[in-house]
Request: fold
Amino acid sequence: MSKKAFIFDLDGVIVDTAKYHFLAWRKLANSMGFDFTHEQNEQLKGVSRVKSLEKILAWGNKSVSEDEFIKFMAQKNDDYLIYIEKMEAQEILPDVTKTLDYLSAANQHIALGSASKNARMILEKVNLLEKFDVLVDGNDVTKAKPDPEVFLIAAQQLHTNPENCIVFEDAVAGIQAANTAGMVSIGIGDKKTLHESDYVFKDFTEISEAFLKELINR
Ligand code: B16
Ligand code: MG
Reply:
């Protein structure tokens, strides 16, 4: 069997932290006197903390000073962390652990490639940290997805080439990042939204061991 690198996004792939991001951002927006919808929240998936706040302020027609911007990001993160603190293994999305275990039994590299600066803590909370050989997250990158930086750093740290990497992503920007990096892109979610992916599955319950084997041996 050949050795490939499987790179997992975090939010929307391993766990659904989007619902906690939503609650925390919404609290901030409400404190400024406006609201936003679940549909708008979709646009924040895979987007960095800075870019998320920029979008939210634009929705509320607010402009703030640089100091306030930093204060708001800290406030949102403090509120977000209250939810993260309580996360546990049962929040891992269906068949993710099964997939990780299959890949690790097949002696494959496993990496995380996430925009989140809280990624390590979340993986610790849900008890998955030790399954990853390499963690690349929002603390390691200067350019957000769709820039391929996050995935290229993962490949570099694993001493492997991009063409040996397979990325699981739920966000369009993440699929574009994987494609630009020259990696195999696997969309997790809606077929229409993620049409730029090489493959799309609703979730990991649709991904068979035969398919994983084929990815390993191609
Ligand atoms: P943090 P991913 C992303 O995670 C989230 O989808 C996005 O909504 C969030 O703004 C971003 O992480 C940054 O998160 O505030 O924790 O640094 O999908 O790239 O794993
Ligand atoms: Mg994501």
About this structure: Strands lie at 5-8, 109-113, 134-136, 165-169, 184-188, 199-201.
